[in-house]
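Thread: quick sanity check before group meeting

JM: Hey all, I'm pulling together slides for Thursday and realized we never actually wrote out the predicted structure for the chain we discussed last week. Dropping the sequence here so it's in one place. If anyone has concerns about the input, flag it before I start.
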Amino acid sequence: METLEEAELCFPQLNASCEKRPRSQSEALLIYSLLPCFSLLTVVLNLLVIISISHFRQLHTPTNLLLLSLAVSDFLVGLLVVPFQILLIEPCWLLGDLACVLCSFLPFISVPATAGNMVLISIDRYVAVCDPLRYPTKFTQKTVKGLILLCWVYSVLYNLLFLFDNLRQTGKFNSCYGECVITINGTVDLVMRFIIPISAIIILYVRVFVVAVSQARSMRSHVAAVKLQRSLTVTVQRSELKAARTLGVVVAVFLMCYCPYFGVSLFGSHFVTGSSVNILMFNMVVFNSCLNPVIYVFVYPWFRKCIKLTFTLQILKSRSCHAKVL
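JM (edit): ok, ran it. Output follows.
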């Protein structure tokens, strides 16, 4: 009986040790089978997006640079965040208090980085649809690269401040040995990483939708009388509207996957690793990172062509970067 009781403790030699949380068979299957599979699929699919946009010169547009930044964020989720998170959701944390905080750093970076990229994508579509004449001068590649850099710098600095209290006194919020608890200011986090970016995304896309409907009606009423120059403008507008619809799907999937995470912030600021809520929220985040490239496969012919060129090793040929993929 004594051996059984000791086996249920994370550190049997310590009286203040945490008890090992029992894990059901379904949870074990989810963590040790599905999560690694999702991780591998997320890495492979987003790597294809990164290779495609980086390699082919035709794809070096401001909008695609934003998709590239989003793909890098999703790629890091599969490559780094998932392995660390599997460690964090173990029944017992055995690596120490400092490692607990540091291993929590990468997962928390992915959330504001992804949200920031979504805001930039929404701004890009807003300007492209609502102010198409000035879009080429407002959203140059140099401008977009600067915005992407600011997005990532903000994500890193915010998370350093976000975890500062945990770093200053590691293990302060643990109730026993073998526990990894990260405490955050739930209200501030909810406002800065959810309410502000999500509000911006929704407002911008509502405006894009209103303008898109107006332009669609205008196109139908004047399509018979357009001249060559007007016809070119209509074609450009249709292209921008199609891109807005496609990226609108990406934004909608992001909202569905990330809203549950922030919904939990409304009910408390303590996230205990290994809890059922923690596991469920994390799987939603990983699912979002895996879904974005899948969306591109269905809606972007250029992505399907790039995948074909990549798997047939055509990209290894000289001057393959100048291939026509659009």
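AS: nice. Confidence is low (pLDDT under 50) at residues 1-6, 224-234. DSSP finds eleven helices and two strands in the chain.
JM: adding both to the slides.
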